[in-house]
Amino acid sequence: MEQSTTYKPNLGRFSRVTFWDTDIANIDWNRHADFVIERVFGYGTADEQDYLLSLYGPKRIRRFAESFHPSPYNRNTLSNLRKKLGYAAL
What's the predicted TM-score (pTM) here? Predict the structure, then answer.
């Protein structure tokens, strides 16, 4: 079983635009990691993506990327994940 990790981000590192429809202060960064990863890699800046990669780590981000199914509404997410993770085999 994977050890539980508590993610405690600096909320000032994320723009309101990235989380336009969500109260960022109420996000459970552990339970809602997939939502956060999809949102930041779909709409966030390169700095936000880098920060999230340092927060969750490449292993967690890769696990999300490998199970991610893009739709017409979030196709930028997969492209950004590929760029940031450095491989096209997603």
Answer: 0.86
CA distances (Å), origin 89, targets 20, 23, 45: 31, 34, 23
Residue recorded with tokens 């927060």: 55
**CA-CA distance, 23 to 84, in Å (whole number)?**
26
Domain ranges of the chain: 30-85
Buried-state track 41-74, b at ≥16 Cβ within 10 A, e below 16: bbbbeeebbebbbebbeeebbebbbeebeeeeee
Among 54, 47, 84, 55, residue whose Cα is nearest residue 68: 84
Closest CA to 61 of 89, 34, 90: 34
Q: pLDDT tens digit string along 37-48?
A: 999 999 999 999
